[in-house]
Request: fold
Amino acid sequence: MGIHQKSGKIDIKALKKTTTLTGPFLRKKQIRDNELASIIKGEDQRLLLLIGPCSSDNEEAVLEYANRLAKLQEEVKDKLFIVMRVYTAKPRTNGMGYKGLVHQPNTLQLPDLINGIKMVRKLHYRVITETGLTTADEMVYTSNYHLIDDLVSYHAVGARSVEDQEHRFLASGIDTPVGMKNPTSGNLNVVFNGIYAAQNKQNFIYHDAEVETDGNPFAHVILRGAMNEHGENIPNYYYDCLLKVIADYKEMHLSNPFVIIDTNHDNSGKDYLEQIRIVRQTLINRDWNEMIKQYVRGFMIESYLEDGRQDRPEVFGKSITDPCLGWEKTEKLVEEIYQTLAD
Reply:
């Protein structure tokens, strides 16, 4: 019974010392962060793509993917702005299974969270400094935010965390965009209340201190589908769903209304190939309705080097969590989105 300390505490200053952005790398991130903010505000009309592996389980595979993605970003930069998913903590419905790089820096070994934290910083740092891309991560643990706050450009609050008050309050103090997913029930009131909380000033206890936030005007919704009591998937990227989301934004008078479609999870039923069709359908809906085009300006896509998933890390660059689009299909999809926007 009880909590038992396994190892020493993290020396945060020492941890950050060798992985702090300086010089041209810091300037590059600042420029891209400003561009991302302009996209959320609607001043920059490029489409936002949050794309990358379901879970960043292997440093070298993630870096190989990042280098390919950086080259693709250059080819489509006038129409698309890409932020790479470098998701290092994996929420688990029943608390079991692979929980991400932060828990297991080596997927073939036992959990090692101290070295996991070090690996998380190192990976975000390497992606930025070696490819020029900025990164997104999911805020599974609010207590870990300060360990990567200077490196990550986009934070997601997942379906199981969006009702949590501490996630909402912390989101209100983050200086970069925070995407908040609808809960697994699909209840939009929940996510919009979360966005409202995140966009307003809050005060709470954080790391044993009383803190006050300014509110985050860049908090916004991510539609990831839902699941009913029978375990059936209920997509929420359809035309009428988007109109309902837009109406909710208007009714609540939220800042910088912005909608991202999560093309996997309960929208696709975790059929990774469905992501292609969902993107196509959403682009059609944007063309049909000017209001949808104004609000729906981003996609979240799960993609890795190889198609599908595997139970054990045997194939390099193949997901060990949710199935992902492989690189060949990813490249074609991004080029298709670009061409559709260019036509």
